[in-house]
Specification:
Layout (H helix, E strand, L loop, with lengths): L3 E16 L4 E17 L3 E5 L6 H8 L7 E6 L2 E2 L5 H7 L3 E4 L13 H11 L6 H14 L16 H13 L5 E5 L7 H18 L2 E5 L3 H7 L2 E6 L2 E7 H6 L4 H9 L5 H6 L40 E4 L2 E3 L2 H4 L3
Parallel strand pairs: 3-8, 3-9, 6-7, 7-8
Antiparallel strand pairs: 1-2, 1-4, 4-5, 9-10, 10-12, 11-12
Helix pairs in contact: 3-4, 3-5, 4-5, 5-6
Amino acid sequence: MAETLVEVSRLKKYFPIKKGVMRRAAGFVRAVDDVSFAIPKGKVMGLVGESGCGKSTAGRTILRLLCPTEGSVRFAGREISSLPKREMNRLRTRMQIIFQDPYSSLNPRLPVAEIVGEAMLQHGIVKSKREMRDRVIEVIGKCGLFPEQAWRYPHQFSGGQRQRVCIARALAVNPEFIVCDEAVSALDVSIQSQIINLLKDMQQEMNLTYLFISHDLSVVKFISDEVGVMYLGQMVEIGPKERLFANPLHPYTEALLAAAPTFDPEANRARKRVLLEGDIPSPANPPSGCRFNTRCVYCQDECRVVDPEPVEAEAGHFVKCHRLRKGA
């Protein structure tokens, strides 16, 4: 068994809804609500779900870019959800993030050399500007950029090149764990494949661990070892990718996989169509019982009242659904 690098337990992140002149909290948006999973060292966990289900918030809360409301996050066996700021800053070199939009996440006033190298100086990885420059050229070279491009500004790059800069910035401090937050969603298909292959190569070369957040199920299937499915702030299914894609057990996972496009006409005709009716409930006022009961074709009375606990359907495959307990 591989050593567990990241362990998330009962994680919650609520955002207050403030109203009135005094801006008092009148309620909360439950963006992440009781999420638990673990990522072994050197592995990739994919995280999928509809827009607004809490994937990105979960990733940022794990890195303490957002402070958790409740729950535990352990990194390499160390509890980090309540670490003091100074100790958390020392840990930043081991945990990095690649943001969805490569342009807005880069400082337009700095050249690539400073964007990639400033964290090295800040954390004492390099001792001088000359050493920083040499290290920057080495890192961006691994990411498919040329040495002369180190002195260009973000607006002088294409979208794919900017994402390579973001990857280089994350790799510059020799991290162990990287959250890829929709890292390829804004890119063309041909560029997506280049970036995904780059991430895979860097994972093997540096023994990296990824939390890969994406809408694209084909990308997640290619890069991930394990996949978690989120719906309305909760993890409804998690398991090895082969088992999850071949035999989804939660009704929401079935609907997600049925909606994913394929290039095989025969497969499209043979595919079982799953149509979800109704709108996604508000995370500020989620339904009682199972979160998916308002759209689930298998919904029964128990589903509207009791929130199901995760059940281990097979080895390492957990599902949060009443239907599984009844053997349906």
